[in-house]
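Page 47, continued from p. 46.
Same chain as before, 79 aa.
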Amino acid sequence: MEKLRIALVCPQGEHNINLRVPPLGFAYLISYYKTHGKHNSTIEFQIFDENITRNNLKNKIIAYDPYIVGISAMSFTKA
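Result:
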């Protein structure tokens, strides 16, 4: 049985805020699947959260050849 590859992308963005937040949402999804998912299927998760250029990120994701790509986003607001 072939592995179902899922790429989870947490882009660092191009902002001046030096804030490094771990991908907790992705960690929750993976943990939930490991607890409640079908254990007869083979799913492989890969988190892409490096601070690299868009082209390098795109090339890494293409090389991974995922079936599904999930993207995380965070927005900032000023009070």
